[in-house]
What does this fold into?
Amino acid sequence: MIVGAGFAGYRAARTLSRLTRDKADITLLNPTDYFLYLPLLPQVAAGILEPRRVTVSLSGTLPRVRLVLGEADAIDLDEHTVHYTGPEGDGGVLDFDRLILAAGSVNKLLPIPGVAEHAHGFRGLPEALYLRDHVTRQVELAAAADPENCSARCTFVVVGAGYTGTEVAAQGQLFTDSQVRKQPLRSGMRPRWLLLDIADRVLPELDERLSRTADRVLRQRGVDVRMGTSVKEATPSGVLLTDGEFVSTRTVVWCVGVRPDPLAESLGLPMERGRLLVDPHLQVPGRPELFAAGDGAAVPDLEKPGQYTPMTAQHAWRQGKAVAHSVAASLGMGERRPYRHRDKGFAVDLGGVKAAANPFGIPLSGVAAGAVTRGYHLAAMPGNRVRVAADWLLDAVLPRQAVQLGLVREWSVPLDTASPELARVPGGPEKRVEKKGENGPVEKKGDKEPVEKKGDKEPVEKKGEKAAEKREEGAEEQPEEDRLEAGPRAGPRTDGSGESAVGETATVPLGVDAVTGSRGGEPAKSQPGGEPAKSQPGGEPAKNQPGGEPAKNQPGGEPAKGPAPGPVRHPGAGAAEPPGRVPHPDAVEAMESKRFGASAHLRRPGAAGPASRADSGEEVVPPDVLQDPDAAKHPEPPGPVQRPHPPAGRGSPATTRGGHPKPPAGPSGTPAEGDS
It folds into this structure.
């Protein structure tokens, strides 16, 4: 079994499948179904490469390896089992004879106030996608902001001048410059990128000549490089630097470094700064069944006695091959080899045609270094080489697309996470989210009762609800499909006299709240938090809608039972209709055919009519006027929510487009005065 499909885990799985040739069962446990080529991640954030270009399918490139999607939670070395949690919250246990730990690393945190809340890392694909959208959005908002806000939104702070931070700042400056080239900001303003590090030079882990080259390119491009300076505190409006300066910004990218995945710490074995100690054959001493490679393993550096190999992709990729040979040798196939690697050079992509590289110790810069860097990446990638080369070619001849898709939200990519390759979802991976509306309840797998969300309150009992329940005592309860699924839907109308009028509202069954359309305080099916209405997208079609059963009062449906209800009059209406007022056609139809299946009237508190509370001596509270939020979009004032549709699905001469009944026309062809 192999835990993790990073550089070490992916290479180990591929090499083992070739060495064993179906003589061993290989299982790969990983949260995602792809291998991520991290060195090209800054180009995804800068809009050069599409996200899938830097991913390689595990099932497509490892045909003899069983892929299990999930995150390892605990390892029992005595029982030879690994407990994991799947992407939908379902857990499982996997057995093993040999175990390779290659879980990789996560963002390194420092005890700096506000960093965990206001900064974002750069270790996974979700973080790169978020940064791409966020930078685009800030530039777009800055174009319409006042000078102070424009400056803050166009200031981007990158903390850490190592491999990742240097490339992010270099690519980011080019990306924002291309965005404002055709849509300039306010006079004298341009995007500003700051690169901070407590070290005395850029790329402190590399040769000084590479550092000087990278520093020169960044400064020529306009990046504000500040060495010996870092962040003292982060706030929502900016960062306070260690030199006392406060920089107003909305973007803080945390590239300080990485730390080993905390999974290895739970084993209780000897560690070296969070990394599991192994021998030169990448085997854990005293545990013949346990191996480790990559960032989570402290591998002795045979080229530098007394030191351990650094946490780089180059070492992880080569350690994956070495640990595969060691595992195969423990199964009686081949011989194990000690890990030994001598660096052949480094390459740092600085965007465009510029880079800094020293292949085989030869320092290069400019176009030559750029060609070597991209050639190295194409050779090192285990797949997608043609697609990556095609994107590079298109970027050279076409402008970049500065579009924010909004696929990854800010709260879904926290800095303090053990899984940077996964975007956080509501409820966490241990829960199965089932939405029943826009803000529906979150349910655990197998739960029947919805889990109350934080901040939810008990349903508030509407005024007059108890009185309505008393009035409906003894009445026959109507079937669920006959109940009205939404409240009144009527828009305001201004007649010729300039007075505002409210249209007729639909009668609702007893026990159903007149505002929400729900019974007993439960959310209506068309309201947030409830089940979608049958006439709404995602719900079961209503019986009077195309695709559903005909309503009981429609042709082909079951005839309605009981007396027909009368219309509920709007607030302020008298006991009788004004002379000459033409009733709304839907109100007439409701009175004649018991359209909604109610056996009696339920009026909102204060509504006039035979069942008004004013007749019983109770205090009458005028209700809020319900208006159609989309009234301005309708060519005519809307009527009740549910409208009859012709059986064939097309409007008749007496209906508008979509099957809505036309209001009676006045003498001049306009809607009659009483229509709404």
